[in-house]
Amino acid sequence: MSSQSQTQKIDTAHQDMVHDVAIDYYGRRLATASSDGTVRILSVGPTSQLLSTLAHHNGPVWRVSWAHPKFGTILASCGYDGKVIVWKEASPATNQWTQLHVFTHHTSSVNSISWAPHELGLSFASASSDGSISVSTARQDGTWETLRIDRAHPVGVTAVSWAPAVAPGAFSANFVYKIASGGFDSCVRTWEMVNGVWQSETGSISQLHKDWVRDVAWAPGLGVKSTVASCSQDGTVVVWTKGKEGEAWRGKIVKDFGIPVWRVSWALTGNMLSVSDGEGNVTLWKEGQDGNWDQVTKIEM
């Protein structure tokens, strides 16, 4: 992608600020989340079309996330009302959606959701201002099981991201259950399920952010180390790496943007990091042979 790449502007028809956009697995549809309390589904192509409006949140919707298509066409949304709604497309021909599950266990705003790798089943993690992280998993009988990490970030959890199902460099078929989280306490933490219980893997791994963490993203496991990116209200983007199990996480500041940074996201190859800042700029970064991160391009909006 070059700085001359063309961009397509899509009118979402939302009546208020758009907080999140997620493209589906096949790149054919967008889901958007807005302060107007709705989630909208739009087609992607030469011309965009509004397909559906999902309006069952009571307040701003912060995030949307598509599940892997092996489970069908499923979308999760979370919002200020403390709910996570799992939507399922009932009829593609008529663009009809139903509520597969409504999660209401959080007592405050749900700020982030992340689907687990498909190898682990239909499962999502949610992060809330009530300080907890919840992990909900669909059972075969149609019910859901929920496990909580209480006081994950006592002053509020802002972001959550699943690790790959296979540990870096592993040849075993045993899957790992790990997540990374960020909070209003300026910390990034990692968690691991051991014997059916979620516990802190390393405690606080962030000593670099000076303000609350806006987003975290665990990189695809294509190398020999675990990698997590985080961004903060303080304007910094940090990439955290860890080699073998038991080693400490090490953080490196990619850049201090001088303005709040809203989102970080990895390419599927795991070697390219996308950064979205508070002024609407999107930049792509790649690690050089010297270990420093270099800006590859800036996408003009």
Helix content: under 10%
Mean pLDDT: 90
Strand sequence of the main sheet, in spatial order?
A: 1-2-3-4
Number of helices: 0
Major sheet summary line: 4 strands, antiparallel
The residue ranges in which pLDDT falls below 50 over 5 or more consecutive positions are 1-5
**In CATH's first tier, which class of the largest domain applies?**
Mainly Beta
Alpha-beta content class: mainly beta
CATH topology of the largest domain: Methylamine Dehydrogenase, Chain H
| Residue fraction in strands | over 45%
Commentary on this structure:
This is Protein transport protein SEC13. Belongs to the WD repeat SEC13 family. Keywords: Protein transport, Repeat, Transport, WD repeat. A hairpin with a 4-residue loop joins β7 and β8 (96-103). The protein has 301 residues and is mainly beta. The chain has two domains: 9-104; 112-301, YVTN repeat-like/Quinoprotein amine dehydrogenase (Methylamine Dehydrogenase, Chain H), CATH 2.130.10.10. The protein has strands spanning 18-23, 29-34, 39-43, 50-54, 61-66, 74-79, 84-91, 96-103, 110-115, 123-128, 133-138, 144-149, 157-162, 178-183, 188-194, 197-204, 213-218, 226-232, 236-242, 250-256, 261-266, 272-277, 282-287, 293-299. 0% of the residues lie in helices and 51% in strands. The chain is built from no helices and 24 strands. The strands form six sheets. Strands 1-2-3-4 form a four-stranded antiparallel sheet, with no helix packed on it. Strands 5-6-7-8 form a four-stranded antiparallel sheet, with no helix packed on it. Mean pLDDT is 90; it is low at 1-5. It is globular, with a radius of gyration of 19 Å.
